[in-house]
Design a protein that fits this description.
The chain is of the alpha/beta class. The protein has a domain of 69 residues: Nucleotidyltransferase, domain 5 (2-Layer Sandwich), CATH 3.30.420. Helices cover 33% and strands 15% of the residues.
Length: 136
Protein backbone atom coordinates (compact mmCIF):
# COMPACT_ATOMS: atom_id res chain seq x y z
CA UNK A 1 0.00 0.00 0.00
CA UNK A 2 1.34 3.18 -1.06
CA UNK A 3 0.49 6.48 0.47
CA UNK A 4 0.33 9.38 -1.72
CA UNK A 5 1.10 12.80 -0.28
CA UNK A 6 -0.91 15.55 -1.81
CA UNK A 7 0.63 18.94 -1.77
CA UNK A 8 -1.99 21.53 -0.92
CA UNK A 9 -1.14 25.06 -1.76
CA UNK A 10 -0.60 27.29 1.25
CA UNK A 11 -3.55 29.62 1.42
CA UNK A 12 -3.05 32.85 3.29
CA UNK A 13 -5.22 33.18 6.39
CA UNK A 14 -8.42 35.10 5.76
CA UNK A 15 -10.76 36.97 8.03
CA UNK A 16 -14.37 36.87 7.04
CA UNK A 17 -15.67 40.36 7.86
CA UNK A 18 -19.33 39.88 6.92
CA UNK A 19 -20.34 38.60 10.41
CA UNK A 20 -18.29 41.40 11.97
CA UNK A 21 -20.16 44.00 9.89
CA UNK A 22 -23.47 42.49 11.01
CA UNK A 23 -22.44 42.79 14.66
CA UNK A 24 -21.28 46.40 14.17
CA UNK A 25 -24.61 47.33 12.57
CA UNK A 26 -26.51 45.63 15.39
CA UNK A 27 -24.53 47.60 18.00
CA UNK A 28 -24.97 50.81 16.04
CA UNK A 29 -28.73 50.23 15.85
CA UNK A 30 -28.85 49.61 19.59
CA UNK A 31 -27.06 52.88 20.35
CA UNK A 32 -29.24 54.88 17.97
CA UNK A 33 -32.43 53.47 19.45
CA UNK A 34 -31.26 53.94 23.03
CA UNK A 35 -30.31 57.59 22.48
CA UNK A 36 -33.79 58.31 21.16
CA UNK A 37 -35.21 57.34 24.53
CA UNK A 38 -32.67 59.33 26.54
CA UNK A 39 -34.28 62.66 25.73
CA UNK A 40 -36.61 64.00 28.38
CA UNK A 41 -39.80 64.98 26.66
CA UNK A 42 -42.22 66.48 29.14
CA UNK A 43 -44.89 67.68 26.76
CA UNK A 44 -46.95 66.29 23.97
CA UNK A 45 -46.34 67.46 20.43
CA UNK A 46 -48.56 70.35 19.45
CA UNK A 47 -48.45 72.98 16.74
CA UNK A 48 -47.02 75.94 18.68
CA UNK A 49 -47.65 79.53 17.63
CA UNK A 50 -44.70 81.61 16.40
CA UNK A 51 -43.20 84.61 18.24
CA UNK A 52 -40.19 86.77 17.42
CA UNK A 53 -39.33 87.40 21.09
CA UNK A 54 -39.36 83.81 22.32
CA UNK A 55 -36.53 82.78 24.63
CA UNK A 56 -35.51 79.32 25.88
CA UNK A 57 -36.51 78.49 29.46
CA UNK A 58 -33.77 77.21 31.74
CA UNK A 59 -35.72 75.26 34.35
CA UNK A 60 -39.00 73.58 33.56
CA UNK A 61 -40.70 71.73 36.37
CA UNK A 62 -44.18 71.24 34.91
CA UNK A 63 -45.67 71.35 31.44
CA UNK A 64 -49.33 71.94 30.69
CA UNK A 65 -50.31 70.92 27.17
CA UNK A 66 -53.53 71.99 25.52
CA UNK A 67 -54.01 70.00 22.32
CA UNK A 68 -56.09 70.85 19.26
CA UNK A 69 -59.11 68.95 20.63
CA UNK A 70 -59.05 71.02 23.84
CA UNK A 71 -57.80 68.26 26.13
CA UNK A 72 -55.48 69.31 28.96
CA UNK A 73 -52.38 67.33 29.93
CA UNK A 74 -50.07 67.95 32.88
CA UNK A 75 -46.67 66.36 32.20
CA UNK A 76 -48.28 63.99 29.64
CA UNK A 77 -51.05 62.94 32.05
CA UNK A 78 -54.60 63.77 31.06
CA UNK A 79 -56.30 66.04 33.63
CA UNK A 80 -59.56 67.92 33.66
CA UNK A 81 -59.49 71.71 33.64
CA UNK A 82 -61.25 71.69 37.01
CA UNK A 83 -58.50 69.58 38.64
CA UNK A 84 -55.55 71.34 36.99
CA UNK A 85 -55.10 73.93 39.72
CA UNK A 86 -55.06 71.25 42.46
CA UNK A 87 -52.45 69.23 40.56
CA UNK A 88 -50.24 72.31 40.13
CA UNK A 89 -50.58 73.11 43.86
CA UNK A 90 -49.24 69.63 44.65
CA UNK A 91 -46.28 70.21 42.33
CA UNK A 92 -45.68 73.68 43.82
CA UNK A 93 -45.44 72.18 47.31
CA UNK A 94 -42.74 69.77 46.13
CA UNK A 95 -40.80 72.20 43.89
CA UNK A 96 -40.06 75.69 45.05
CA UNK A 97 -39.84 78.24 42.23
CA UNK A 98 -42.12 76.11 40.07
CA UNK A 99 -42.15 77.11 36.41
CA UNK A 100 -45.20 75.93 34.49
CA UNK A 101 -44.84 75.98 30.71
CA UNK A 102 -48.03 76.18 28.69
CA UNK A 103 -47.91 74.37 25.33
CA UNK A 104 -51.09 75.35 23.56
CA UNK A 105 -51.86 74.25 20.04
CA UNK A 106 -52.33 77.13 17.62
CA UNK A 107 -55.87 75.96 16.80
CA UNK A 108 -57.11 76.16 20.40
CA UNK A 109 -59.57 78.93 21.18
CA UNK A 110 -58.41 81.92 23.18
CA UNK A 111 -60.83 81.35 26.06
CA UNK A 112 -59.38 77.91 26.85
CA UNK A 113 -55.85 79.32 26.94
CA UNK A 114 -56.98 82.13 29.26
CA UNK A 115 -58.69 79.59 31.53
CA UNK A 116 -55.45 77.63 31.86
CA UNK A 117 -53.41 80.81 32.43
CA UNK A 118 -55.85 81.96 35.10
CA UNK A 119 -55.65 78.66 36.96
CA UNK A 120 -51.84 78.60 36.91
CA UNK A 121 -51.60 82.22 38.08
CA UNK A 122 -53.80 81.46 41.10
CA UNK A 123 -51.22 79.01 42.47
CA UNK A 124 -48.95 80.70 45.00
CA UNK A 125 -45.29 80.65 43.93
CA UNK A 126 -45.87 79.22 40.44
CA UNK A 127 -44.46 81.10 37.47
CA UNK A 128 -45.98 80.80 34.03
CA UNK A 129 -44.22 80.59 30.67
CA UNK A 130 -45.93 80.17 27.30
CA UNK A 131 -44.20 77.93 24.77
CA UNK A 132 -43.75 79.30 21.27
CA UNK A 133 -41.43 78.66 18.38
CA UNK A 134 -39.33 81.11 16.46
CA UNK A 135 -40.56 81.94 12.96
CA UNK A 136 -38.41 80.74 10.10
Amino acid sequence: MRRQIIDEPDLPPQINIVPMIDIIFAILTFFIMSTLFLGRFEALTVNLPKAQTSKPQESVKATVTLDAEGQVYLNKSLVSIDNLQDEIIVLAEVNENLVVVLNADGKVTHDKVITIIDQVRQVEGAKLAIATKKPN
